[in-house]
Design brief:
- The protein has about 180 residues and is an alpha+beta fold.
- The protein contains five helices and five strands.
- Helix 1 packs antiparallel against helix 4.
Length: about 180
């Protein structure tokens, strides 16, 4: 049996308490971030009167997935979906990095790449409005409104609402730090 000096025991306990406090702080920040995203997507879906609003989060270089969604019906869920391989390439990424906002009233009439159209069809999208979430270090994610039941004409106010939602997310401290 080895006896440790009292000060060494206190130092070890202090490190454990600090580690626990750091973990608790990260957990609180994650909960705050998730609640902000949930509120933002729900509010946008209701205001735009669409079937789905999603957050597509980039976890790697142009690789990501749908991490949040607000739905008018559970049948429209695409939670966990990833983008089509090769379709979201550097060209599209550069456009969104530059602040691109893309509104498509009807994917069947819009001149888009076949892989993009097929990807949207597979997700039951008939119309969509996509805005980037830009933070100082780059493209954090995309905020997308999807109408699944038919075409949807997007108004300038719809774009403004989506951009305001993206800006709210982009400036939240717990998103800037993630």
């Amino acid at each position: 049996m080895q006896i440790h000096p009292h000060s060494e025991f206190n130092h070890s306990r202090d490190r454990s308490e600090q580690g626990l406090q750091d973990l608790l702080n990260r957990l609180v920040q994650t909960m705050q971030r998730d609640e902000l995203v949930r509120q933002t997507t729900n509010q946008l879906r209701k205001s735009l009167q669409v079937d789905r609003v999603v957050l597509y989060y980039f976890y790697g270089q142009w690789q990501g997935q749908v991490t949040f969604e607000s739905l008018s019906s559970k049948g429209f869920s695409i939670l966990g979906s990833t983008g089509p391989d090769g379709c979201f390439n550097d060209r599209y990424a550069e456009l969104y990095l530059a602040g691109r906002v893309k509104a498509i009233a009807d994917i069947e009439l819009e001149p888009i790449e076949a892989c993009h159209r097929d990807f949207l069809r597979n997700m039951q999208v008939r119309a969509n409005l996509v805005v980037p979430i830009l933070i100082p270090r780059g493209l954090w994610g995309l905020l997308a409104a999807h109408h699944c039941q038919g075409p949807h004409d997007w108004l300038p106010s719809d774009t403004e609402m989506m951009q305001a939602g993206a800006q709210t997310l982009a400036t939240a401290p717990y998103i800037l730090e993630s």
